[in-house]
Design a protein that fits this description.
187 residues, alpha/beta, Rossmann fold, globular
Length: 187
């Protein structure tokens, strides 16, 4: 199943593809995917054998552009170290099989300033708002996850131009789905 936060990012998903639009942000994305996987687990809908999260991402380094298949996703707005020190260990990082080596940071903040971009660039290559939540849910349901992100902006002051750039990114995502064989509606 292909999962996207917005219809705009999924505008060029090939016809017949099993598609879930979650909405923006970690909580909304987690709720939508958990509900769908629960329905599949209980036979209300067809089984789901893989989740492919497509979408846009901000580049945290100037040399990043194009399409990426991240190998790791982290929650950048969860202080797992402090929580662990308080006696509440929590997962804030997931390894994603079959990735290209890039690291994707997820948080509920829309990153559009150079200072925050530089902070995040110390631990990640790209930034989005849903992938870590989807990784948490997919892991819980023991369903494989693939992340596919197209850089739409530089996570700086120009990021607010995202609406003007999303269609070009959606075209690349749709082409990747068609070329990868994941656009047949299965999974």
């Amino acid at each position: 199943m292909v999962v996207s936060a917005t219809r705009a990012e999924a505008a060029h998903v090939p016809d017949g593809t099993r598609l879930l639009i979650t909405g923006l942000g970690k909580v909304t994305a987690a709720m939508a995917l958990a509900t769908t996987l629960t329905r599949a687990r209980h036979g209300v809908i067809a089984p789901i054998t893989e989740v492919v999260n497509i979408g846009t991402a901000g580049a945290l380094h100037d040399h990043h552009s194009g399409l990426f298949v991240p190998s790791r996703v982290i929650e950048h707005d969860l202080d797992a170290d402090t929580l662990a020190a308080l006696g509440y260990p929590t997962t804030s990082s997931w390894e994603i099989a079959g990735g290209d080596g890039t690291v994707l940071a997820t948080g509920d903040s829309f990153i559009n300033d150079a200072v925050r971009r530089a902070e995040l660039a110390r631990s990640a290559d790209l930034v989005d708002m849903e992938a870590a939540a989807l990784a948490r849910v997919a892991e819980s349901f023991e369903v494989p996850l693939r992340l596919v992100k197209v850089v739409s902006d530089s996570a700086d002051e120009t990021a607010v131009q995202w609406p003007e750039r999303v269609d070009a990114a959606a075209r690349r995502l749709g082409a990747w789905l068609a070329d990868s064989g994941r656009a047949d509606g299965s999974g």
